[in-house]
Amino acid sequence: MALHRVNTDNYQQQLDQKVDRLRADFAPFTDLEPEVFPSPPSHYRLRAEFKMWQEGGRVDYAMYKQGEYKKPFVIDEFTVGSRRINALMPPLLEAINQSEILRKRLFCTEFLTTLSGDALITLIYHKPLDEVWEQEARALQASLGVPILGRSRKQKLVLERDYVIEQLEIDGRTYQYKQVEGSFTQPNGDICRAMIHWARSCCDDNSGDLLELYCGNGNFTIPLAEKFRKVLATEISKVSVNAAQENIAANGVENLDIVRLSSEEFTQAIDKVRPFRRLKDFDLDSYDFSTVLVDPPRAGLDADTCAMVARYPRILYISCNPETQLENLKALSKTHKVARFAIFDQFPYTDHTESGVLLVKK
């Protein structure tokens, strides 16, 4: 099935197959029926990247099959993409083809949009961007009414801003997020909202403090903060930490601190293996961590981090790779049992699925 054009009639069938597969995969750890969160069947993806196919003095959006990078599929629609992306694609392409300056050596276009309607377009080139390009790009920006960002080797030219502002309504409250171009954000906005709602519901009967590893821009951290006395979150990316600090202020959260550390470094700090200057203003002994939230990269938790989180009464583990989550569960199930199990269809019509488990101490 071409990912730019999908048959929505098959959506429920493909979701059922994923659920059946994951139910069987998780059977050694739980017999709970999974809580399933479906995606909208179309227009669910808030980010998109297109290669730009240059031929005969014209440029078109193109996609490639994996491993076949010399055989482009020229596309004129992207039904998995947000409606905002689809609305911007035709006028952007027309404007680029009318300007040799904008078209020449353009090899990639990226769209970043939000559920609340904000958008940012990044044009990426195999040439330096000069004042002439900037003048043309500013005219394009004005005609589209959308910020344009230019990139080339060792060059980033921001004409207005390099971020979008998302607004998510969750449990009767609207949360605001600054999402910076090039940094990680959840690609499926409806599933992101569902994951946050589910995570909050897992903490309704909780007390004590929250520790979060891999917090990104505060996507989960900020809505969860009101469920706890204090929250300490860690993230290694400087861009994400800076965005998270702005998001904390924008949402008026006062019981949350973020420190720039990797999960491995935090494990060393909490074990007092070595001190970190970035923690000099934090008294780790003052926290009473009752819950730890992890949403790690695809590699899952390393052995030391896995052992560290196993100390806490409750582990909320959201995973973009159920295979590595299952590997971690082999260790975590020695001390914890699965109290809740969720499946999030982040990427419909693909083999990819995200999963969540709430683990409680045995």
TrEMBL record:
EC number: 2.1.1.35
Chemical reaction(s) catalysed: uridine(341) in tmRNA + S-adenosyl-L-methionine = 5-methyluridine(341) in tmRNA + S-adenosyl-L-homocysteine + H(+); uridine(54) in tRNA + S-adenosyl-L-methionine = 5-methyluridine(54) in tRNA + S-adenosyl-L-homocysteine + H(+)
Pfam families xref list: tRNA_U5-meth_tr (PF05958)
Protein name: tRNA/tmRNA (uracil-C(5))-methyltransferase
Annotated family: Belongs to the class I-like SAM-binding methyltransferase superfamily. RNA M5U methyltransferase family. TrmA subfamily.
UniProt GO MF annotations: tRNA (uracil(54)-C5)-methyltransferase activity, S-adenosyl methionine-dependent
InterPro entries: MeTrfase_TrmA_AS, MeTrfase_TrmA_CS, SAM-dependent_MTases_sf, TrmA_MeTrfase, U5_MeTrfase_fam
Binding site for S-adenosyl-L-methionine: 186, 214, 219, 235, 295
Enzyme class: transferase
GO biological process, one term: methylation
Taxonomic path: Bacteria, Pseudomonadati, Pseudomonadota, Gammaproteobacteria, Cellvibrionales
Catalytic residues of the enzyme: 320 (nucleophile), 320, 354 (proton acceptor)
Species in which this protein is naturally found: Microbulbifer salipaludis
Protein role: Dual-specificity methyltransferase that catalyzes the formation of 5-methyluridine at position 54 (m5U54) in all tRNAs, and that of position 341 (m5U341) in tmRNA (transfer-mRNA).
Keywords: Methyltransferase, S-adenosyl-L-methionine, Transferase, tRNA processing
